[in-house]
């Protein structure tokens, strides 16, 4: 990818890649140039798109951009009433440094897989490194819901979907069943 790759994104409305799109099965490429105006504009668009769809996180491959960019932005909303409030945080080129052996199952959904929810086992905490908007490298330890959102979005950067981590098909339900019977 070149410097101009992000240029095409701000000019149009971002479109969500749905499960089956090859871009969701690719390894995303790292971001190397943090000076690009287009990168900043792309990130703003990505954030808007996530908000408009009621997400608590999103990854660039979900809008057909195969780059290692994710946004972690939990806050309570209609789709995730129990989400914690968290200052939106872009993470570039993230890596998992360490993670808990202990896992916990909880519900996830995905903007790329509308209409269903599933209980997914995830480590209860992760320690990650990432670059911020200026390219500076930071590390952070994320727990519970935040660790879950991070790992969900991280999967999108390595060609996985959350359904790949479901350990029993009985843990998958329709979104309408989830709303009427589970979350209530
Ligand atoms: Zn997703």
Description of the molecule:
This protein is of the alpha+beta class. It has one domain: Alpha-Beta Complex (Peptide Deformylase). Helix content is 23%, strand content 27%. The strands form two sheets. It has a five-stranded antiparallel beta sheet with strand order 1-2-3-6-7, sandwiched between helices. The chain starts with 7 loop residues before the first helix and ends with a helix. The mean pLDDT is 92. The site of zinc ion (ZN) has 5 residues, from helix 3.
Poorly predicted residue ranges: none
Biggest sheet overview:
5 strands, antiparallel
CATH names the topology as Peptide Deformylase
Provide the β-strand percentage band. 25-35%
Q: What CATH first level would be assigned?
A: Alpha Beta
User: In whole angstroms, how far apart are the ends?
Assistant: 45 Å
Radius of gyration (CA) equals: 16 Å
Q: For the largest sheet, list the strands in their spatial order.
A: 1-2-3-6-7
Q: Architecture in CATH?
A: Alpha-Beta Complex
- What general form does the structure show? globular
CATH homologous superfamily assignment = Peptide deformylase
